Each structure stands twice: as C-alpha cells, then as structure tokens.
Amino acid sequence: MSGHRALTLTCSVVGAVIVALDGTVLTVAQPTLQRDLGASFAQVQWTSTGYLIAVAGLLVFSGRLGDRYGHQRLFALGMLGFGVTSAGIGLAPGVGWVIGLRVLQGVFGALLQPATLGMLRAAFPPDRLRMPIAVRTGAIGLAAAAGPVLGGALVAGPGWRAVFFLNVVPALVLGLLALTLRGPRDRQSSPVRLDVPGALLLAVTLACLVHTLVTLPNDGWTTASALGLVAAAVAGAAFVQHERRTASPLVPPGVVGSAAVGSALAMLVAASAALNGTLFVATFLLQDTLGLDPVHMALLSLPLAALMIVAAPGCAVLLRRAGARRTSVAAMTVLAAGILVLARASGTVGFCTGFALVGAGFGTVMVAATHVVVRQAAVGSAGVAGGLQQTAMNVGPVLGVAVATTLMGLGHGHGLPLVVLAMVAVAGAVAGRALPERSTETINHGQQGANARVPERR
C-alpha cells in the first residue's frame, strides 16, 4: 500500500471512529450534564436531536460539495470544525450553548462523514475497496463498544466536560493532516452546478422525518408527529419532482437509478433499524423485566460488539469468494435469526448467542452493502454515494427505535417488537436479491477519460 493510500485510510478510519465515539460517550454523559447545568429532560434530549437533524439534512449535499471541491478539503474542514465545536461544548456555560454548538457540530459532522468514504473511493481501485471498508467498519464497531466504558470512566472522573475534550486534539491533528494529503485529484475538470434548491428540499424532508422519529419514543403519536410526517412526505415529493426536471440534480441519475445501489441502501436502513430497535427493546427486557444492572447487561451484549468487529474483515473475504448478493442475503438472515433467538432467550447462553448472531450479521451486511454503494459510484459521484450511505445509517436507527416504541406501547411485551424487527431484517434480505452476482459497469478510476467497461464479481 502506497503512503498516500495508507494516510487516506488512516484519516477515513480515525475520522469515522471520532464521530462514532462522540455519539456513544454522549449518551453516558447526558444525566450528569443535566444535573450540572440544571437542564430539563427536553433540553438534554435536544443535545442529541439537534445534532441528528443537522447531520441527516446535510449529508448528501456535503457529499456533493466533496465531489466538486475535493474530499480532502471537506474532510479537513469538517474535522477542524468538529474539534473546535467539541472544545466549545466542553467550555459551555449553559445548556443553550451546548445545544447550539451541538447543532453546529452536526454541520461539521455532515461535512466529514461522506468524505471518509469519498476519499477511499478516490484513492483505491474498485477491486481493492473491500478491505479498507472492512477496516473502517471494524473500527466503528470497536468505538461503539468502547464508547460507553470510556464515557463512564470520564464522567466518573474528570466530569462530563471531559467527554467533549476527548475529541479535540485528535480532530484538530487529523484535520491538519488531511490538508497535507497529495494524490490523484478527485475533483471534476468541469464541475456541475450545485443543486441548492434540491439540497434544501432534501434537508427539509430528512429534518422533518428525523425529528418526528426521534421525538416519537417520548411523546408518542400526536398531532405534531402526524404533521411532521406529512411535511416530510410533501417535501420529499417536491424533491423528487425537482430532481427529475433540473439539469444538474443533487443526486445523479447514475447513482440513484442503480438497482444495486438502491438495494444496498435499503439493506442498510433495514439492518440498522433492526439492530437499534432490538437494542432498545433488549435494554428494557434485561433491566426492567429481568432486573439486571447496566454492567451485567453490558457483559451479556459484549458478543455483539466482538462479532461485529470480527465479521468486518471476514466479510471482505466473503465478498471476494461469494459475491455481494449471497454474502448480504446470508448476513441479513443471520441478523434476523439472532433477533428471534433474543425473543425466546431466557438465560445467559441464549442472550449471548442471540447478541453474537446479531453482531455477526450486522457487521457483515454493513461492509457488504457499503462496498456496493461506494464501488458502484464513479469517482465524480463518490461523495454523493457516501452521503446516501451515511443518510441510510442515520435514518435506520431512529426508524427502528420508533417502531419498537410503538409496538411496545401496545402492551404485548418484548416478543412482538422483536418478531417485527426480525421481519424488518428479512425484508432487507429480500431487497438484497436485487444485488447482481456478476455485473458489467462503468468504473471511473479518477482520471478524465478513464471510464472502462469491466466485468466484476459482486
């Protein structure tokens, strides 16, 4: 691996880890933050909700900005801004400042996340993307597992502010390091116009959708939630109409019109919804119904994180030998089976087995589906592809928790929600049947005129 590719992979992996770690440690710090700043429960919730809305609404447009101006530049700007806002949150005198800075941090997070995939697509040939994506996914799994432990230690020691200071130095160093990257230019020689109206319509659609789904677990189905879904539907319809008519759409037809990309994105939404909905139900099952403390619950769920980390590099091998369709469908089936095992589990062995299957299935499908989305995209659209992948990974979790909350509210215990979430995973497996085993596609290696028709194993 060349020095440029190694540095690009380092930036991509560490950048993704910083974002993943930020979300997991914040959850642990929120109760202490609430007491220290005298904040209400609703205000504390907005420290997460504001961030999620900003990220979800801007991911695709940020990816397009990377396609036009260069992914290294967007990544560097995003990392530097993420680090500065983290420092600001750690010094914030009140919860209002925390919320405002978290929204701004979400903007910078949206800038850097698509770039972590766009840089990989520009730096690595299509047939060598499997392992870099697997390494990135495994690192995210490790961050998700370590986040609650690290966050708990920081809150118990220096305090909740240390949770945000944790990101400052790595983010600033990585942002400055990204500015030194010199390699094949991923900028188009004649960049298309930015579709600002399309970006605004998509941002409104996703902001309304995410806000409605995030608030659903606490507020339930209300007139406001119904209006939020209606607003998302209207804005989404307007976005689709606009994209069909404009000469320079935000999402190029070559990306959104690909059956493989659409199938992979559907699988990512289904998998992340099933995983996060299951974890939400499992928390209530293990702590409230079975009376386990958080430490015991964390130990029972440890196989999930461990298998997710192990499955990521294993998926790179499966993709090469079995192709994306069989790998993805099998992974979604394993994920569904793990959820069903958890639905029937009553002891340590059952819960550990269920969590292990869920981790193995999710880790595999995340690598396989992401690989399809990134590889299918030409270099000139890699940022948009990365933005779509990140959007799927942001919408899926809130959708899964909303489904779980609604079903649990019907009073049928944990069995019905877990069975339905398993069916969501099965639906993702069905969507995976649209992935081609072998296909012929246009692959752009990042140089003008470098498009070539080449057969590939999927």
UniProtKB/TrEMBL annotation:
Q: Which SUPFAM superfamilies match?
A: MFS general substrate transporter
Q: Which UniProt keywords apply?
A: Antibiotic resistance, Membrane, Transmembrane, Transmembrane helix
Which regions span the lipid bilayer?
A: 45-62, 74-97, 103-124, 133-156, 162-182, 194-214, 220-240, 261-286, 298-319, 418-435
Q: Topology with regard to the membrane?
A: Multi-pass membrane protein
Q: Does the keyword ATP-binding apply?
A: no
Domain Major facilitator superfamily (MFS) profile residue range list: 8-440
* Coiled-coil intervals: none
Compartments (UniProt record): Cell membrane
Task: Read off the Pfam families from this record.
Answer: MFS_1
Is-annotated flag, keyword Ion transport? no
Amino acid composition bias (Polar residues), ranges on this chain: 441-450
- Region annotation (Disordered) maps to 438-458
Please give the PROSITE patterns that the UniProt record associates with this protein. Answer: MFS
- Supply the name of the protein: MFS transporter
Q: Which organism is it from?
A: Streptomyces longisporus
